[in-house]
Amino acid sequence: MKRAIGPDRQNPLSLSISSSVSEVVACTIRVPVEVIKQRMQVGIYKDMNFVSVFYKILRTEGGFGLYRGFTATIQREIPFAAIQFPIYEELKKRFAGEDRRRMALCGSVSGGLTAFLTTPLDVLKTRTMLNTKNHIDEAPPSFRTLWKEGKVRSLFAGAIPRVLWVSIGGFVFFGVYEKIIQVKCNK
Is residue 94 within 8 Å of residue 162, measured between CB atoms? Predict the structure, then answer.
């Protein structure tokens, strides 16, 4: 995506756009897997394997059921990508130089910070995916609902494990990403 944007692909706007488009494409695969995983984790489908849950959702909710929360996921992923990549590039420029370990650390910091900032969006996405009710008159989960439940605590539920998980993922992802870029450039 960065190449498609043009010659000024390192500016924050180009980074935000290219990473956001990439996330939308990735969500077409990620969302159905996430819906199945989350429902299995909370016990909605007890004693069923992944494939059985996939077909159960298709039979009972149709294709929409597999993409429940797609919009909420995109609403989380676009801000996440738009924030994380420019922060990463700026940290890398200021602190990493050519040191891949420092680049990985910059990825960890940018991921962790972004994870914290976007936790309310993640909570909303999770609630949407776990909502199996198909009642048209029932309001979908919203920030207002979360705020009424527990104010800031509800909006940032699970923030610490999310920050830790994304920080570790950012360290690995950006470390590997930079290594691949380096190998590719040396060919």
Answer: no
Number of domains in the chain: 1
Q: Residue 136 maps to which CATH number?
A: 1.50.40.10
Name the phi and psi angles at 35, rounded to 5. Answer: -60, -50
Q: How does pLDDT run across 84-133, given as a tens digit for each residue? A: 989 999 999 999 888 889 999 999 999 999 999 999 999 988 888 777 66
Domain residues for the domain of 158 are: 2-182
CB–CB of 110/87 below 8 Å? yes
Would you say residue 69 lies in a domain?
A: yes
Domain assignment present for residue 187? The answer is no
How many Å apart are CA 65 and CA 52, to the nearest integer? 14
- On the question of pLDDT at 20 being above 60, the answer is yes
Contact criterion met (CB below 8 Å) for 113 and 87: yes
- Ranking 17-26, 97-106, 160-169 by mean pLDDT, the lowest is 17-26
Closest to 147 measured CA to CA, from 157, 138, 139: 157
Q: Is residue 60 part of a domain?
A: yes
Whether 131 is in a domain gets the answer yes
SS3 of 97, please? Answer: coil
Return the amino acid letter for 79. Answer: P
- Residue 138 has φ and ψ, to the nearest 5°, of -90, 130
Of 115 and 16, the one with more pLDDT: 115
Give the length of the chain.
187
